[in-house]
Structures are given as C-alpha cells and as structure tokens.
Amino acid sequence: MELNKNNNKPTVFSGVQPSGVLHLGNYLGALAQWVEMQNQFNCIFCVVDYHAITVKQEAKNLSENILNVVKAYLASGINPERSVIFQQSDITAHTELAWILNCVARMSDLNKMTQFKEKGLGKESVGVGLFDYPVLMAADILLYNTDAVPVGEDQVQHVELTRTLAKRFNNEYGNVFKIPEVTVRKQGARIMGLDDPTKKMSKSAASAANYISLLDRPEAAAKKITRAVTDSGSEIKYDAKKKPAIANLMTIYSLLSNTSIKELEAKYEDKGPAYAKASAGKYGDFKKDLAGVVVEFLNEFQIKYNSFSDKEVKQILKDGAEKVRPIAEATLKNVKNNLGIN
Ligand code: AQP
Predict the structure, then answer these.
(1) 51 Cα nearest atom in ligand 1
(2) pLDDT (mean) for 301-325
(3) Helices and strands (DSSP H and E) totals, the chain
C-alpha cells in the first residue's frame, strides 16, 4: 500500500482495543464501516494495546487478544494488501506525542469526557491512564495526517477533543496537524446491550448476556437473541425512544441481512399480537429469524477468523509497523521542531 505517496486519497485512521473478544457492536459500529472505506481511502487500522492497559489486563490474555483483534479485522474483510494494520506499541511516536499533547490538553478538557466516568463507576478511584486515554487517542490519529476517523458513537467525543488539541497546538506552536473529521455510520453507531437497551453493547460488560461476541458459539448466540430483553407491546416497529430494545434488534437484523428497516417492518407487520398467541410467544417469529441471521453471520465470520495463523498475523503487524513508522516519525519531528526540542 502506498500511504500518501502515489495517490491523492484521503487517509483514514481507526483502532480497536485488545481488551477482550470483539462483539457485534464493534463490528457493526466500526469494522463494517472500515471495510467499506478501503476503496476510497488510504486506510490505517491500529490495534491500540496501550489503550487496553488503561484497565487491568492479564499479560497472557493481552498478547493473545492483540493477535485476535487482527484476526477479527481480517475476517471482517480488512485486506492487508490495501490497508495497513499495525500494533500501537510498535511505534514509540504514539506515546511521545501523547506526552507532548498532555502539555497542550487542560484538565478541564479531560474532565468533560464521559468514558472514564462510566468505566470508573463504582470503583474507588480511576487510573490516570484511563483519565488520559483521549490524549493518547489524539496522538494516534494526529500522527498520520488523518482526514477521517470512522468510529462508533461512544468515541465521537474523543475525536472532537483530538480536533481541539490539534487546533490549539497549531495556534500556539505553528501549523503541523491536519484537523480530522469524525465519521459515524447512520445505522449501527451505537448497538445497545441485549440485556439492557439503555446501555451500549460492551466487551467489558458484567454479564455475557449483554453482548454477542464474534466468537460466541452460534447456538449460544441464538439463545442470547431469544433471551434478549424486549419492550412492552408486540409490534415490530422501529421507535428508538418508545421501543429501544426492538429498535436495537431491528438495527442488528437490518445491517447483518442487508434489509432496510422499512422492509423489516413490512415483513413482520402481521406477526405481532396474532403471533404472540402462538408457541414462540411475543416477538417470537422476529427473534427466531434474527437468531438465524446472527448464526449465519457468525458461522461465516468464524470460518474466516480461524483460517489465519498467529504467524501470519505477526507478519502483518510487522509489515504494518514498517509502513507507518516513517509517517509517524516525520510528524513527531515537525512537532518537536515547532516546540524547539529537536
Ligand atoms: N456498542 C457499540 N456500538 C457501536 N460501536 C461500538 N464500538 C464499541 N462499542 C460499540 C466501537 O468499536 C470500536 C472499537 O471500540 P474499542 O475497542 O475502542 O472499545 P470501546 O469503544 O471502549 O467499547 P467496547 O468495545 O465495548 O470495549 P470496552 O468494554 O473494553 O470499553 C470503536 O470505534 C467504538 O466506537
């Protein structure tokens, strides 16, 4: 891949933390969007391992999860011939730039971020790394002259902070950073928990009933769909406010089966109250079909996922680091020049 050399394509940068097995929310909110972008952009996809350690990780799990995230990228359709895949900690410029941006960020900027508050909820204290996570994310993005950052809705606030820090640095020390735009999918930007449609699907959720992991056994995933919380009533109608659980299930169904919400509403129009009397119960027909769609998706995904060896993945990460290192180092050099510390 040429990366900013022989083409005028804009650059996309995004990443996933290797903090556990990826779930349908990660896939539908982020990875599926990345796959679509590969044609129009120079894409750089990172495994953000330094972000993962903002919450305690077991060393053995972390090293496995790093490789597993890459396998999930590949199984989703990220093509290493067209996109660069690399590991954040392989490029030291990320942590160097994060320190510099720490000196540009204000406590008041970070205090506005909601993620550390949510993740710190119920804990005695919050780690400095978790509080500072958005600054490291800003460094990740800004090192690569990024034009667009495709993320799920929960990360939008962090990309906005990135823009603030980049503009502030440019104003105070001279123009170095390109100001990136955030891109969020219209549908799927916030997949909610199956056990609680008021909270986002999350890999660190307390209960496995919250999420469908991309590596869940398909039959187990089907059970999770059957047991997913639903709303009162029995109509299959998209209404995110009044029927958040059904709206969430419809979003998953729509994206995985490439069927519009309108088509789904039409398909299940007569299957509400009448069907409720049948054995499968309320929303039964809809959930049964959705379970089938999820099973089919997971079967296909997991066949691809299991076809990649650790050796192959390590080579992809090594090649990726070699491709991005010169870009990161050039940006860092410009930053240091402007600061007077080269
Ligand atoms: N529920 C979600 N719906 C849509 N998109 C989502 N993303 C995460 N959850 C959802 C998007 O997935 C990408 C990678 O996320 P991450 O690894 O950076 O972790 P996260 O955003 O903190 O959420 P997770 O995956 O649930 O991890 P934990 O529980 O460890 O915090 C991002 O683009 C994110 O927006």
Answers:
(1) 18
(2) 98
(3) 15, 5
Go through the domains of the chain in sequence order and give each one's CATH number: 11-189+311-339 (3.40.50.620), 208-304 (1.10.240.10)
The beta strands (E) that lie in the chain are given as 11-16, 42-47, 83-87, 148-150, 181-183
Which helix (H) or strand (E) segment holds residue 276: the answer is helix 273-276
Give the alpha-carbon dihedral of 50, 56, 61, 64, to 10 degrees.
-10
Tell me the torsion sign for CA atoms 309, 315, 318, 319: negative
Query: Closest Cα partner for 320 from 109, 129, 83?
Result: 83
Compute how many other C-beta atoms are within 10 angstroms of the C-beta atom of residue 40.
11
Determine whether the shortest distance from the Cβ of 204 to ligand 1 is under 6 A.
Answer: yes
Segment 93-123, tens digit of pLDDT: 999 999 999 999 999 999 999 988 888 887 8
What are the φ and ψ backbone dihedral angles of 100, each rounded to 5 degrees?
A: -60, -45
What pLDDT is stored for residue 279 in this prediction?
40
CA 81–ligand 1 middle distance (angstroms): 25
Identify the pLDDT of residue 233. 87
Alpha-carbon dihedral of residues 275, 279, 285, 291, nearest 10 degrees? 170
Residue 293 is predicted with a pLDDT of 98
The mean pLDDT value for 249-253 works out to: 98
Give the whole-angstrom CA distance, residue 4 versus residue 1: 9
Average confidence (pLDDT) over 231-258: 95
pLDDT tens profile 70-79? 999 999 999 9
Q: Are 109 and 161 in contact (CB under 8 A)?
A: yes
Residue 248's Cβ-side half-sphere holds a number of Cα atoms within 13 Å equal to: 27
What distance in angstroms lies between residue 273's CA and the mean position of ligand 1's atoms? 36
**Ligand 1 proximity of 26 Cβ (cutoff 6 Å):** yes
